[in-house]
Each structure stands twice: as structure tokens, then as C-alpha cells.
Amino acid sequence: CETCSKEEAKYRCPRCMKYSCSLLCVKKHKLALSCNGVRDKTAFVSINEFTDLNLLSDYRFLEDVGRTADAATRLCTMHSPATKRLLYCLRNKARGCNIELKTLPVGFTKRRENSTTFNSMENKFYWHLKLVFPHCHAEYTLKGVPDDKTLTDILKPYIDPVESDPVVCQRLKIYTASPQSDVQILMKIENRNRNSVRYNKLDASRSLLDNLKGKVIIEYPTLFVVLKTLKNDMVILGQDGSEPTENTGSESSSLSSMEEGEIRDSS
């Protein structure tokens, strides 16, 4: 024992590596050396003494740092009064446009992704928007899309044979090679049972805001671009002969049943 020098040592301090024989000596050495007894995870270890245990210790230390940083971000940013006021403002402005905007709890992927803002000076939404092209298994995310932009203009950089990006055009060639009259833009109707998924058909000649009016949106709009000539399992409301074309929104919401970070198309 390096404290009393009388008894055989039984313990070794993780912090200063001093040997002790009993609890009393442990307390004495902590008091004398101002040692807290906690192992220094960042202590220098020479390459000759570096072992697999040191590597595992470093890995766990980095994991702890990541968790701590993530927890601090959620507490300071996601739960701050400013963030809550922003979400309340977005929902309130959307309600004024006859849009039911719903936000997910903290931690969901769509909540973290959403970059939708409202410009009070212009009295205009700038939407976070996702475009899905199911026939090519392609998805694109757009940020800052003004609500007065027509769907046709939104899709031009993707499926227009002249204005689209060459790389995107090649990936979506099945769309660019088809007549514009065959292109349909659909949006999933929220607040429905999973075994009764339906889609609203949107008007490409109208603005994004006009198409979103009367709809329920969870975080941000997701538009599905499909071709009428190709068979797909997306049922448009009113075309199955069993339901009216209007989205009454009478179904109860079941946000708690959604998987974290995504709202999957059951088709």
C-alpha cells in the first residue's frame, strides 16, 4: 500500500494508479493528492503501450461524446422557446391558407429534415419539398420552394427534355421520353388507415399553394410523379368508385403508429 506502507495492496486507483489496501487508505490518498478516482479517458498512452483495451476505451469515449452532443442539441435547440414559437407560427400561417400542417415529435427524421419557412414580408411560404419518381426509384429534395410556383415549373429541371439537367434527365428518361399529358402528380392523403391508402391528384398548372389548400401535411409535402400509361398501385381518391373525390379529413390521425423518421407508402 502506497498510503500506509504496512498492508498488502488490494486496490489500484484508476486515476493516478496508486496502490491501496483498504477503503480508509483510498480516502486518504484521494484527499492527499486531490484525486477523484475517475479514470482519465484522454490520458496519453504511448504507441508501445497501446492495446486493444485502449482502442475500445477510445471508441466508447467517442460514443459518449456523440451522445452528449446530441442530447445538448436537442435540449437547447429543439425545445427552445424560439423553436416552439416558430412551429406555432408555421402551423398558424398554414391554417390561414386552409392547410392543416402537422409537426412530428422531436427525434423524427422528417422533423429534423424540414426546412420550411414563412416570409412575413412577402407573406409567402418557402416549402421543403420532396419529389418521388417511383418508376425510376428516384427521390429528390428541394428547399426553399416558393408557394406561388406552379408544379409544372417545379418539375421542369427534372422531366423537361430541354431544361432538365443531363444527369437527372438520363436517370428519369422514362419520364422525359413520355408526353407531358401522361404525367400525373399525386400526393398521399394523410389520416387514413394503412389498408386504405389513397392519393389526391394535383393540378400541374396551378401553384403549389393552391394544390395544398384543403390538404393535411405532415411536416412537408411529398409529391409522387407517375405516368398514367404505366401500371402502379396508387389509388386516386374517387377513381376506385367507392369514395367521393373530396378529402373530408374525418378519419382519426394515428401519428403514434408511424415509424420514426418516415411515413411509408403502403403500396
From TrEMBL:
HIT-type domain: residues covered: 1-35
Residue segments, region Disordered: 238-267
PROSITE patterns per UniProt: ZF_HIT
GO biological process per UniProt: box C/D snoRNP assembly; maturation of LSU-rRNA from tricistronic rRNA transcript (SSU-rRNA, 5.8S rRNA, LSU-rRNA); snoRNA localization
Top-level division of the source organism's lineage: Eukaryota
Pfam families per record: BCD1, zf-HIT
A GO molecular-function annotation: zinc ion binding
Gene3D superfamilies: 3.30.60.190
Keywords of this entry: Isopeptide bond, Metal-binding, Phosphoprotein, Ribosome biogenesis, Ubl conjugation, Zinc, Zinc-finger
InterPro entries per record: BCD1, BCD1_alpha/beta, Znf_HIT
CDD domains from the UniProt entry: zf-HIT_BCD1
Record-level GO cellular component terms: nucleus; pre-snoRNP complex
Entry function: Required for box C/D snoRNAs accumulation involved in snoRNA processing, snoRNA transport to the nucleolus and ribosome biogenesis.
PANTHER family, alphabetized: BOX C_D SNORNA PROTEIN 1, BOX C_D SNORNA PROTEIN 1-RELATED
Quaternary context: Interacts with FBL, SNU13, NOP58, NUFIP1, RUVBL1, RUVBL2 and TAF9. Interacts (via HIT-type zinc finger) with the RUVBL1/RUVBL2 complex in the presence of ADP.
Family per similarity comment: Belongs to the BCD1 family.
The protein's name: Box C/D snoRNA protein 1
Source species: Grallaria varia (variegated antpitta)
